Amino acid sequence: MKLTTKGRYAVTAxxxxxxxxxxxxxxxxxxxxxxxISQSYLEQLxxxxxxxxxxxxxxxxxGGYQLARDVNEISIAEVIAAVDENIDLxxxxxxxxxxxxxxxxxxxxxxxxxEQIYNFLHGIKxxxxxKSPEVLKITQKREVGRVADxxxxxxxxxxx
Amino acid sequence: MKLTTKGRYAVTAxxxxxxxxxxxxxxxxxxxxxxxISQSYLEQLxxxxxxxxxxxxxxxxxGGYQLARDVNEISIAEVIAAVDENIDLxxxxxxxxxxxxxxxxxxxxxxxxxEQIYNFLHGIKxxxxxKSPEVLKITQKREVGRVADxxxxxxxxxxx
DNA sequence: TAATTCCCGACTGTTTTAGTCAGGATTGTT
DNA sequence: AACAATCCTGACTAAAACAGTCGGGAATTA
Lengths: 160, 160
Description:
The structure is a homodimer. By secondary structure, chain A is mainly alpha-helical. In chain A, 45% of the residues lie in helices and 5% in strands. Chain A has seven helices and two strands; from the N terminus they run H-H-H-E-E-H-H-H-H. In chain A, strand 1 (55-58) and strand 2 (64-67) form a beta hairpin. Chain A is elongated and about 55 Å long. The two termini of chain A are 23 Å apart. At the A-B interface, helix 1, helix 5 and helix 7 of A face helix 1, helix 4, helix 5 and helix 7 of B. Chain B binds a DNA duplex through residues 2, 4-6, 9, 25, 27-29, 38, 40-41, 43-44, 46-47, 50, 57-65, 86, 93.
């Protein structure tokens, strides 16, 4: 599972959708404005999200996008997987490591880590994230000081 | 955090070093042959690893590289950090999210995930990994926790 | 019919990845 | 001292991914 800004954009956009998802669809232009993401880029991302069955597009005036499922049935892992389509972690990039006969030294490590990250992200649904006080507030209300222990470049995405 | 083949190469090479680390240094040519990684590319990676203080280079015939510390004092997180030095500082790529006033929607999510992954990888040392297959069981027990499961006092980061 | 919106494919500039290459600098062996 | 092994450095490259841009459709509502 890859964790890039692309996936972050996707998650951010989906959260925006989830927040606005009262009844009427949300146009990309709105999301673009609110989240400061290029509209054309959003179109690319939503093409992927739609193909993954996570959103539905509605054309015409007052059209836009809607979540295809309930906010509590869409996990962050799914969103990221939809746009970061590179799933295979071929360890030896073409070498002998196919996990069968002669797994490379770190094979187990990466598969395990992958699972861990997936589980973590799969356990978080859009619905939880948008009603933060519980989820986000926890992550925001913390003791100061220990973040410095984590090298900046190890931090997923950006933190500031 | 970027989990790319680059970091995997680095970890694989370090594991090879750790396994061979009896007394004499290990030449890159050997690692290149055993792990099927281009020697020139290895030289680049080891330049970074050396600057990070993880290995020591010994020149001349029968030279090579040695771990700079005990195998049980080098974590996977450090190895990856040494080569994947990339920092992506802009949460909203130039937008308002600086973590201060108006953190973007997913700010807390990425911060927390970062910590989880870091903790996971920092908890695994080279010494453990080379002692497979016990390691796999161990690493599987080490779970990346869910947001809600993290004790508040352990949660760090910046706050809006 | 016209405006709005999704939809789609092709194109571009930059960065990263994964190397190659050419040449040092240092050191052990003969 | 000569030589070979090895690290060390910097510059270069091809391919891919990232982050868009652009132009033109197709569907739908007013």
